[in-house]
Amino acid sequence: MSQKIKIRLFVATPLIEQTSVSLDEAPSHYLIHVMKAKIGDPLLLFNAECGEFLAVIKTISKKNVSVSLERQTRQPLSSPDVWLLFAPLKKDQTDFVIQKATELGCAKIVPVLTKFTITEKTRIERFKAQAIEAAEQSRRLDVPSIDDAVPLTKVLANWDKQRPLYFMDESGNGHDVFSIFGAARIAKENKAALLIGPEGGFSDDELALLRSLPFARGVSLGPRILRAETAVAAALSCWQALVGDWTSAHDESL
Ligand code: SAM
Question: CA triplet 129, 130, 135: central angle to 5 degrees?
Answer without folding.
Answer: 100
